[in-house]
Design a protein that fits this description.
Structural class: mainly beta
CATH class of the domain at 34-118: Mainly Beta
Largest sheet: 5 strands, antiparallel
CATH topology of the domain at 34-118: OB fold (Dihydrolipoamide Acetyltransferase, E2P)
Radius of gyration: 15 Å
Oligomer: single chain
Number of helices: 3
Number of strands: 9
CATH superfamily of the domain at 34-118: Nucleic acid-binding proteins
Order of helices and strands: HEEHEHEEEEEE
Amino acid sequence: MGQHEIDGEKQPYHPKKLEKKEYIGIGEFFSVDMRSGIIDDVQEFPEMRKPSYKIRVDFGPVIGKLWSSAQITNYSRANLIGRTVIAAINLGEKTLPTGFVSQFLVLGALEPDGTVRLLELPEGILPGSTIA
């Protein structure tokens, strides 16, 4: 499954519609580099077909700051700045049709209609911490 869709009528991500994915093995799972980071910049991204933001996340002293496009406009820009998020940072860069380079994938749970609800971490988790 690629880019998700938001559809309030069809509710494509309702748990009763989601099939179980195939077994991938623990090695493949642990090859995904998931880290905590703090959103420090959020910009409008009106050029995108689907409502999106450009977000910059600080992943700490080793990884640094990376940019991504995210369909998380159900959050205000003010509610995103300073928020700790979880992201997969080693999936490769994706150059969008606008020329913007998305460097990571921010993780969230999908509501039945496809709205993204960002995953949350407890207070005090340092930027760049590995998610296990």
